[in-house]
TrEMBL record:
It is a peripheral membrane protein. The keyword Transmembrane does not apply. Part of the ABC transporter complex PstSACB involved in phosphate import. Responsible for energy coupling to the transport system. InterPro entries: AAA+_ATPase, ABC_transporter-like_ATP-bd, ABC_transporter-like_CS, P-loop_NTPase, PstB-like. Keywords: ATP-binding, Cell membrane, Membrane, Nucleotide-binding, Phosphate transport, Translocase, Transport. This is Phosphate ABC transporter ATP-binding protein, PhoT family. It is found in: Cell inner membrane. PROSITE patterns: ABC_TRANSPORTER_1, ABC_TRANSPORTER_2. Residues 5-247 form the ABC transporter domain. It comes from Actinokineospora iranica. GO terms for biological process: phosphate ion transmembrane transport. GO terms for molecular function: ATP binding; ATP hydrolysis activity; phosphate transmembrane transporter activity.
Amino acid sequence: MAKRIDVKDLNLYYGKFHAVDSVSLAVPPHSVTAFIGPSGCGKSTVLRSLNRMHEVIPGARAEGKVLLDGEDVYASSVDPVSVRRTIGMVFQRPNPFPTMSIRDNVVAGLKLAGERDKRKLDRVAEEALRGANLWAEVKDRLNRPGGGLSGGQQQRLCIARAIAVRPDVLLMDEPCSALDPISTLAIEDLIGELKKDYTIVIVTHNMQQAARVSDQTAFFNLAGVGQPGRLVEVDDTERIFSNPGQKATEDYISGRFG
Ligand SMILES: Nc1ncnc2c1ncn2[C@@H]1O[C@H](COP(=O)(O)OP(=O)(O)O)[C@@H](O)[C@H]1O
Ligand SMILES: [Mg+2]
């Protein structure tokens, strides 16, 4: 299997607390991988470690390897800022810059990197907004503030902002949990389209959503109170939801706990 991301023996800590134990998993290019599991089992922690956002938290550290196209993103020669450009992130609550215009929200990353060519910025903004399925709704109000959009539109604006810097991978941490059902479906459709161009890893507490949008599913669990979270199994989504290899997975997906 081709691997865009290859995680090997990854252990994650918050100070002395061992939050996640020895995760190994691979993510093929142009696919959607869903992380599921009960609250606190380390899904967000693993997700944030993939683009080195984990270590931004004081005291947090990672041990092990995360290979992106074969290169260890934790190698000492690697600049974490460039990792975060290649592996973008969309958060649970849409977080546009509320008073900044819709257009400037989308190109914020490029402007920060020094791009000043207005025509280029306009072109990138349009492309990214089209890519995020938002162009038709905002093309007549690009100079209005991002904070004036609905929640679902704001989340697509954040997706446009993430893809404007042309990442290879998009990480999404429960991107629909603050959205209504219609906006949720719009984001799910968009995820299906985005995987043509990007590799996507999504955390979701919604198992129907995992089943609908993902190609492979990773089930994380806690062995017990105070124990680190661990990856129970990762497999094709169809298999996880029809015939998982582990009893704990079956119990979780059939709603017996969590
Ligand atoms: N910033 C933090 N500082 C200390 N502990 C944290 C922090 N974030 C998460 N944790 C702990 O790490 C474990 C995994 O959390 P998290 O990755 O948020 O789980 P999930 O996303 O699966 O709900 C939990 O025990 C949580 O309390
Ligand atoms: Mg989480």
